[in-house]
């Protein structure tokens, strides 16, 4: 009897495996220059997808996660950015490093999350693609593990598989909310950014889609021909209509997730990624004696042995950290000079900036409430209802020069500013 049962289970398992879909492509939506305004002034100098998180461009972490799936052979980056030399060079480097076909495809206008993939559907459908990943560039999680788990979870008849995340009730209204049947995991109701509470299960920005979704997008496209409205939203126009039709299902992610909307969330994402380096890339973390906790240091950086770094610090290329300096919970971008005995806490120091000797640059760190397990980092607003700047990390824009013996606290400084003559420092201000 046991042998018969084992044979039956093996037969079931084989049938189950045959029903699993081969995923050979991933599409990453990288947005465009009209997006990421809450990320300024950092996005004034570099496209947000190329901003370094834990030493590597944000979108490279997504590419690396996709490359870890053995069946994925092609990654398409879709966005509205001009294909500059900086972006083209990045794509070439990614192709060389991960040995995959990686391409950047530019939209002729902002076509929406569904319109953009519909425009390039012929490229997505080549090579007999059955299903593909669609990933938003500004989400952050253990994507490598999630992609593998979504492939294992998905059945062929699930046209739309959406990664779901549980957040606090008041935070849910900033995202697409899903009503999920707990027995079947079907999404029976979907609404994008509701005005009142609907559900604390939200759309986490990772999809595993059947190519049949293009039929649903085509219907919306045909309805809008000649109207002048070329934008089609996967969330508002497609998911909201297909929910409850037996097509849309949720894969609930119980691990950490966040959306990178602001500079403050970038610092927190860098902290989480360095924690994940211990699991996937321990060689990327510094083992120097003057480092406390997780620290990434670019090989070209020069850090004095008496300087103290960490925890949660990322040091970019050609950075110089002089003797006695202290850096904690911060992102130090390429070419920065931190002079003797300077202190940088919970801040982002922009490219080729200089922090003077004995100067203190300090922000307010992003913290998650320890008693609220589903809280995430929102940071949607810079100002309160009275127009006062909310406590935030400090940002020094590119080429900022701070004098010696100055205190900069909870401030945002736009690029190219020299703060000489500001001995009293700067606090709770934006310097334009």
Automatic annotation (TrEMBL):
InterPro entries: GMPPB_C, Mannose-1P_guanyltransferase, NTP_transferase_dom, Nucleotide-diphossugar_trans. Residues 292-420 form the Mannose-1-phosphate guanyltransferase C-terminal domain. Pfam families: GMPPB_C (PF25087), NTP_transferase (PF00483). Residues 25-258 form the Nucleotidyl transferase domain. Belongs to the transferase hexapeptide repeat family. This is Uncharacterized protein. It comes from Oikopleura dioica (Tunicate).
